[in-house]
Amino acid sequence: MLSLIIGENSFETSREVTRLAQDFQGDIHRFDGDALTLAQLPDLLMGSTLFADKKLVIIKNLSENKALWSVLAEWLPRLSDDVHLVLVEAKPDKRTKTFKDLREVATVKEFAPWTDRDAAKAEQWVMEEAKAKGFTLDKKSAHLLAQRVGVDQWLLYQALQKLAVLPSVDSAAIEKFIEATPSENVFNLLEAGLKGNAAKVQQMMRVLETTEDPYRLFGLLSGQVLHLAALAVSDKPAASVASDLGAHPFALSKLAPYAKTLGREGTRKVVAAFVEADAGMKTSAGEPWLLIERALLKTATLT
Length: 303
Hints:
The chain is an alpha/beta fold. The chain is built from 14 helices and 5 strands. The protein has helices spanning 10-23, 41-45, 66-75, 97-105, 119-132, 139-149, 153-164, 171-177, 182-194, 198-208, 214-233, 238-245, 249-282, 288-300, and strands at 2-6, 27-32, 55-60, 83-89, 107-110. The protein has a 5-stranded parallel beta sheet, sandwiched between helices. Strand 2 (27-32), helix 2 (41-45) and strand 3 form a beta-alpha-beta unit. The longest helix has 34 residues, at 249-282. The chain starts with a strand and ends with a helix.
């Protein structure tokens, strides 16, 4: 038997491999593909050992081993009925002959990484995972959790593990025990500026300076400002603008009221403040944190 598990969603691929291993009765062998040699293939693909009738052979990223990958198809007819060969590939080259040959004979499962467009899927998933862990998340709590953590399944799973030990789980518990991701912190920071709350901007900056990289933070802020500008100059609803940008509608819906309040001229001034900060950071004209704070405080004066 031959299984091909592909995709950059490492959580789902790992879970699928774990499921196969748990359901298997026999010897289980795991290998990194780049460390294998051609001389090892016969033993891997042959049948029973002295200790078990069947064996599960899991090989990760064999496509990175060009020498073996190029000849693998030639060895597949020798795969014993007593061997379940599982190939795990994060990003295989689907143009290669080997991949095409494998796809013809293997059971293929592909797990794509989630993006911001999958927020609704993430919310449904955390409700189902919570139930499996013995507690309940209502839709409001699931929405808040996905908003704070994002759509990374590893981070969502870790958050669920934290919540599972609590006597009860609600929005207050999520806000208390689950740390917001940088993207959520960034929105809250920009929102403080857009609301004209200079004191909150400065307070948040002092906290973020101890935990974040200024260039990463500025990049995330600039992305939010780009979305704000797109909303301000477009006559389309936020959902349509989100579709055009490849962003999640919810993210833009939160910015839409500020784009409307600022209008094109006000938004232009916000963009100008961040362009100035960007130029300063590229030319080392000032300390990065000060440049970011200055742009946010200029934003705060516009509302």
